């Protein structure tokens, strides 16, 4: 039964994400500072050990396909969700999102654009390309903790397709 009482919120609440450890996050961001703060926030909410990161969309594709150094799936497991920045060199978050949605094995991965841009056209384009969410990075650590905790808690409770290992090429048309 629900009450009118306001729930107690704590950014120190440890998130218990699937005891089998199958919840994996791929963070795509060209900023080492942003990667540092995102990793710290995920550590604070109890899921930092399930995170891998790359610096741009092209490197994310190599990761998803298991190319080169990313072929070791023990060290670089296939992600459950992708958190991607928008403005990056070599390949932007939009280009990565387009690529992910064009590849059937990857198209099922929840992909969240996690960026500093609140520009309306960027938001519209992200959803048009199939983003599962578009979020502006908070500037305060406690807000970042809370946002990432909510995102991970939500996606860890969702049903997902059978475990995948790599993205494959889309079927020929």
Oligomer: single chain
By DSSP (H or I, 4+ residues per run), the number of helices equals 5
Q: What do we call the CATH topology?
A: Rossmann fold
Report the CATH C-level class. Answer: Alpha Beta
Mean pLDDT: 84
User: What's the domain count?
Assistant: 1
What can you tell me about this protein's structure?
The chain has about 170 residues and is of the alpha/beta class. It has one domain (about 25-155): Rossmann fold. It is about 35% helix and about 10% strand. The chain is built from 5 helices and 5 strands. It has helices at about 30-45, 55-65, 95-100, 120-130, 140-155, and strands at about 25-30, 50-55, 80-85, 110-115, 135. It has a 5-stranded parallel β-sheet, sandwiched between helices. α1 packs across α5 (about 140-155) and α2 (about 55-65) runs parallel beside α3. Mean pLDDT is about 85; it is low at about 1-20.
